[in-house]
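Module 6 notes. Inverse folding takes a fixed backbone as the condition and produces residue identities as the prediction. Think of it as a translation problem where the source language is geometry and the target language is the twenty amino acids. Below is one complete input and output pair. Work through it position by position during the lab.
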């Protein structure tokens, strides 16, 4: 059968094996479907006349001057809503106040120590206006770059919107990044202002922040540092350069008239999370970006303004925070929860406590967190009332079917549609995802491109593969929220995304994917991570999902390590579930059982050569597993660049753990 499989693959030009099958499927309830924002007919409209479809979506926004043309496409350079003028901050804030919704809550903010703040749209308008006036006073204007390194506090949102209001670009950098990482990003963008805080709360304790940012701004283009007081930590101070937020912003006027900017005016630069290597400064612009984030936030989450309570658990420092904490929800007049801290501070039920407290109806998170919740155990969410939940979402990595089922059962009470949303920093907004009132979802699949979006799985030569086959994910039509370039590096933009399938003019996403027998799309992980075992190209995702489907395993990462006989051998790193007797599950018998389990689930070819039980996996700050570092470990190499790692002690932990036991048979 495997021989046949390989032959079929060679004939069809397919580039990735299709090993797993999934027969479970969950259609939306009739009730849900009847009240859903988006209907099946949207797909038809998106296909029939793409420009008209996007023109309709652009009408979600308030344009100061209407655009004359939907799209000007000079591959690979796009202009969307040509000639249109708008102010992004006005769209996210002022217009809701003008419409009489000033009393609506924009953010229920929850601090890690338990302090809270409720911010209405009217208050948001005053705060953003004050911040914009203070920034202008510090010399920030149209086209300038402002670096922001802040914890998850309301001032982060005020800062981003103030930049948008002034036509300045923000470059938000993760709160947990080192001075070196911040410095590199400041230098690359030539930022003139840095907004930061005295400190940040990390697992219940204040940690210094400004000390680090001072190191980062040394010798750069930064003229001023605007400092929010969050933790009351003593800070070093440079007179003339440093300015307290509470002095500059609080005394500024709360009246500010937004100016109109071109639809293609730059909105922000954001560096990718750096899973694969040197981070890229992705450039996004205004009208198209805001159109697509507003559209997707409304359609994919079935968001009802004034009714839904929406919570996206991402950090503001990565693209999900930009598009689905700030711009999408605010463009739609949403009421959001924003939480400052970690999910286990002060206890492992903190998220569920927050859901219960605010009556959260839409909960959007990352697979890594779901697997962590699985590890902690279902008895934790069981203690809370989660009946307000209506829609659940995931982003960031492929979600293992078992984690999807756990999410559905333990959090969604088998009632809430789950939307698995595939997209990237580069795409700016969701691209492949179910529509919750339309799609019968399958655990682990992002299903199909959203209405108006073109995505295809192709082989080596750029030919679409058939159902049941795997290959490369490409985007075959321009989309409004697409990146407009890599900051300061046009060649890298062309090389990275547009050279692989230049002939066809496809955007190469860098991810592997397959169609199942029904034509649903399954993301299979990064092309760079694909393993080659005896000529079979095997995705990391499928083997990981097979491991996670074993009752003892909460999380798994697999890599291909060079192997004298098979080319590459599969090496797996697994984290066990909390309730499992760890010593027993680490034993030789248990490991053999796990290897056999994979073999049974997806075939002998995918049987790991080696399985190692670890406590933690190396992840980026956005929660993605960094397989390239595990590959270094598996091949006994010195571990590569760890600067974008959330916790760099993890690697030495794994390496020392490995010396104890090998787990081979
Ligand atoms: P870098 O490009 O620097 O390596 P990164 O790709 O991790 O960083 P992001 O833009 O944050 O930075 O991540 C996008 C990637 O995340 C996608 O290309 C894909 O690999 C993965 N991803 C995101 N959402 C999903 C999803 N729903 N299913 C599968 N994979 C996903
Ligand atoms: Mg990427």
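Target side of the pair, the amino acids:
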């Amino acid at each position: 059968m495997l021989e046949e499989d390989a032959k079929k693959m060679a004939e069809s030009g397919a580039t990735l094996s299709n090993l797993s099958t999934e027969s479970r499927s969950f259609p939306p309830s009739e009730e849900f479907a009847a009240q859903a924002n988006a209907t099946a007919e949207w797909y038809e409209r998106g296909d029939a006349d793409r420009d008209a479809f996007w023109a309709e979506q652009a009408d979600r926004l308030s344009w100061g001057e209407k655009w004359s043309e939907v799209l000007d496409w000079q591959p690979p350079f796009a202009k969307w809503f040509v000639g249109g003028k708008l102010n992004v901050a006005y769209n996210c804030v002022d217009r809701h106040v003008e419409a009489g919704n000033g009393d609506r809550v924009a953010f229920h903010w929850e601090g890690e120590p338990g302090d809270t703040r409720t911010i209405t749209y009217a208050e948001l308008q005053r705060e953003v206006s004050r911040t914009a006036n203070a920034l202008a006073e510090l010399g920030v204007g149209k086209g300038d770059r402002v670096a922001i390194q802040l914890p998850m506090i309301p001032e982060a949102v005020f800062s981003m919107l103030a930049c948008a209001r002034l036509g300045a670009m923000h470059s938000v950098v993760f709160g947990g990044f080192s001075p070196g990482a911040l410095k590199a990003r400041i230098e690359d963008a030539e930022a003139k202002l840095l907004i930061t805080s005295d400190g940040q709360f990390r697992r219940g304790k204040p940690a210094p922040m400004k000390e680090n940012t001072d190191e980062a701004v040394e010798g750069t283009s930064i003229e001023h540092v605007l400092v929010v007081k969050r933790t009351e930590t003593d800070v070093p101070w440079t007179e003339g350069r440093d300015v307290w937020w509470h002095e500059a912003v609080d005394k500024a006027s709360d009246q500010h008239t937004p100016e109109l900017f071109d639809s293609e005016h730059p909105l922000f630069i954001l560096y990718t999370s750096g899973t694969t290597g040197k981070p890229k400064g992705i450039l996004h612009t205004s009208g198209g970006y805001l159109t697509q984030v507003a559209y997707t936030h409304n359609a994919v989450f079935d968001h009802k303004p004034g009714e839904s309570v929406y919570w996206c658990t991402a950090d503001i420092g990565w693209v999900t925070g930009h598009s689905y904490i700030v711009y999408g929800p605010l463009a739609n007049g949403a009421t959001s929860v924003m939480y400052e801290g970690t999910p286990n501070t002060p206890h492992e039920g903190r998220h569920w406590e927050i859901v219960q407290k605010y009556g959260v109806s839409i909960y959007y998170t990352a697979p890594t967190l779901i697997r962590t919740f699985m590890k902690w155990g279902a008895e934790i969410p069981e203690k809370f009332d989660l009946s307000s939940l209506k829609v659940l979402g995931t982003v960031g990595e492929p979600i293992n079917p078992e984690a999807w089922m756990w999410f559905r059962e333990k959090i969604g009470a088998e009632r809430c549609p789950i939307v698995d949303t595939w997209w990237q920093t580069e795409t700016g907004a969701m691209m492949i995802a179910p529509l919750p009132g339309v799609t019968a979802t399958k655990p682990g699949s992002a299903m199909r491109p959203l209405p108006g979006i073109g995505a295809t799985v192709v082989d080596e030569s750029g030919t679409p593969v058939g159902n049941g086959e795997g290959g490369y994910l490409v985007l075959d039509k321009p989309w409004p929220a697409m990146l407009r370039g890599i900051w300061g590096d046009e060649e890298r933009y062309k090389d990275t995304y547009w050279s692989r399938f230049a002939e066809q003019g496809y955007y190469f996403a860098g991810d592997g994917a397959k169609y199942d027998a029904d034509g649903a799309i399954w993301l299979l992980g990064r092309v760079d991570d694909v393993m080659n075992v005896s000529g079979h190209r095997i995705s990391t995702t499928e083997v990981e999902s097979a491991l996670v489907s074993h009752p003892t395993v909460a999380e798994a990462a697999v890599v291909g390590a060079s192997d004298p006989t098979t080319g590459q051998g599969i090496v797996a790193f697994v984290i066990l579930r909390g309730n499992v007797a760890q010593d027993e599950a680490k034993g030789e018998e248990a490991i053999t059982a796990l290897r056999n389990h994979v073999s049974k689930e997806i075939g002998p070819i995918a049987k790991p050569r080696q399985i190692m039980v670890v406590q933690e996996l190396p992840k980026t700050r956005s929660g993605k597993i960094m397989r390239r570092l595990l590959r270094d470990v598996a091949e006994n190499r010195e571990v590569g660049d760890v600067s974008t790692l959330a916790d760099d002690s993890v690697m030495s932990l794994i390496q020392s753990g490995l010396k104890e036991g090998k787990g081979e048979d």
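Reference fact for the lab report: The longest helix spans residues 121-137.
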